[in-house]
Amino acid sequence: MTVTSYKCNNWIPIEGTMKDKISAVLQEIAERYKDPNQVRSWMQKVPPIEVDGKKIERWSDETLASGFTSICLLMGELDRLYPDDGWDIIGHQYLEQIQIFVERQGIHNVSLYSGLAGILLGIYALSRNGTRYQGMLDSLASWYEEIVSHKLTLYRNEWQNGRLQMSQYDTISGLAGIGRITMLFLNRPGMNSIWEKTIELFQIMCGEKKRVVTQYLLGIFLRNVSFKKVKNYNIPKAILI
C-alpha cells in the first residue's frame, strides 16, 4: 500500500526577529519540562475536573491526553530542532517513567489518548525515525498488532449487528486514532494488515445504507430517530437517499 505525502505550498517559513521570539518562548516553556518528577508533582496538585458528576484526575503518567507520553512528543520535536542540546536525553527520562508505570500497572487499552497507541507514538517521537528504541518499539508493536487484530474482528461483527459505539471508531479511543498510529509502522506486515483492514471497515461503515425509520442515511447510523429529527442534524441533502 502506498501512503501519500501532502505538501503545503502556502507555508511560509518564519525568519528574522519573529523566529527569534518564537524560539525564546519555546525554550522558556521547554525548561519547565526538564525534570519528569517535578512535572508530575506540579500536575498532581491540580484539582480534578468534574464531568457529568464524575471526577477526573488531571494527570496520569502513561497517557497521551494528560501524562508523560504527550511530553515525549515535545521532547522529540525539540530533539529534531536542536539535536545537540540534549533533549533526547531528557526525553529518555520520560520514557523511563512510562516504562516503570507500565511494569507496575500494565496497559489496559489500546487507545490513542490513554493507551498503547499513545505510548507507541511517544516512543516513536523520540526514536529519531525509528533508529532508536527498536527493541521497545518492536515488543509493543507486536502486542499492539495482536490486540488490534482481534478488535477489528469484534468491531466488524458489532457493526453488522448494529451495536458499534462511537468510542470504538472515534479518534480519542477508537479506530481513527489507533489507525493513525498504525501508519507509522507500515513496514511491518502485521501493521500493514491492520491498516488495510481498518480502511476496509471504515469503507463499509461509510458506504452501507442503514435504515432510519422509513428513510435511508448514507454512512451515518442513527438508531430509533425519526426522519423529522434527522433533519435537525443539518445533514447535507446530498447525503440523504
UniProtKB/TrEMBL annotation:
<feature type="transmembrane region" description="Helical">
    <location>
        <begin position="110"/>
        <end position="127"/>
    </location>
</feature>
<dbReference type="InterPro" id="IPR020452">
    <property type="entry name" value="Subtilin_biosynthesis_SpaC"/>
</dbReference>
<protein>
    <recommendedName>
        <fullName>Lantibiotic biosynthesis protein</fullName>
    </recommendedName>
</protein>
<dbReference type="InterPro" id="IPR007822">
    <property type="entry name" value="LANC-like"/>
</dbReference>
<keyword id="KW-0472">Membrane</keyword>
<dbReference type="GO" id="GO:0031179">
    <property type="term" value="P:peptide modification"/>
</dbReference>
<dbReference type="Pfam" id="PF05147">
    <property type="entry name" value="LANC_like"/>
</dbReference>
<keyword id="KW-1133">Transmembrane helix</keyword>
<keyword id="KW-0812">Transmembrane</keyword>
